[in-house]
């Protein structure tokens, strides 16, 4: 858990700070800032939901493990689809910046998530 927390901290917090500084210096406008923040927030919630479902399924039966992880992926994808559609429809955001940042951080989050789960599940070799 510490490794994914550090990865999340080093990945998301600097981008939030950089985008806030760019917003304060008027390099990016309000629409772009809200787009970046919304995309980061959706991906951060997705990552924490993945961790929650994973830690709920540890040391459980295989059936419950598969239900929580595979079913959790379905819930997460539905949540992301719903969040993206609501953001695009109802928020005054830069749609291209939102989709671009969202996809970059979705891929990055999936990579960090897979590496973390793979590292946790590896058993020590004798």
The largest sheet, given as strand count, sense and whether it forms a barrel, is: none
Strand content: under 5%
- What structural class do you assign from the helix and strand content? mainly alpha
- Helix percentage: over 70%
Uncertain runs are: none
The tally of structural domains comes to 1
Write down how many β-strands occur, each being a DSSP E stretch of 2 or more residues: 0
| Overall form | flat
End-to-end span in angstroms?
Answer: 25 Å
Mean pLDDT value: 85
Radius of gyration: 17 Å
> So how many helices?
4
Taken in chain order, the helices and strands follow as HHHH
Classify the oligomer: single chain
Summarize the helices and strands and which ones pair or pack.
Layout lengths: L1 H23 L5 H28 L4 H29 L4 H27 L5
Helix pairs in contact: 1-2, 1-4, 2-3, 2-4
Question: What does this entry show, briefly?
Answer:
This protein has 126 residues and is mainly alpha-helical. Helices cover 85% and strands 0% of the residues.
Key words describing this protein structure:
mainly alpha, flat, 4 helices, 126 residues
Structure description:
The protein starts with a helix and ends in a 5-residue tail after the last helix. The longest helix has 29 residues. It is mainly alpha-helical. The protein has one domain. It is flat, with a radius of gyration of 17 Å.
């Amino acid at each position: 858990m510490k490794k994914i927390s550090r990865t999340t901290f080093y990945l998301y917090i600097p981008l939030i700070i950089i985008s806030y500084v760019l917003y304060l210096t008027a390099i990016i406008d309000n629409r772009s800032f809200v787009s970046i923040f919304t995309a980061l927030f959706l991906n951060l919630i997705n990552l924490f939901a993945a961790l929650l479902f994973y830690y709920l399924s540890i040391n459980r039966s295989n059936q419950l493990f598969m239900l929580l992880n595979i079913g959790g992926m379905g819930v997460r994808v539905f949540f992301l689809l719903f969040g993206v559609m609501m953001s695009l429809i109802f928020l005054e955001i830069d749609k291209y910046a939102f989709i671009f940042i969202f996809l970059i951080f979705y891929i990055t989050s999936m990579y960090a998530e897979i590496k973390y789960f793979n590292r946790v599940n590896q058993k020590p070799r004798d």
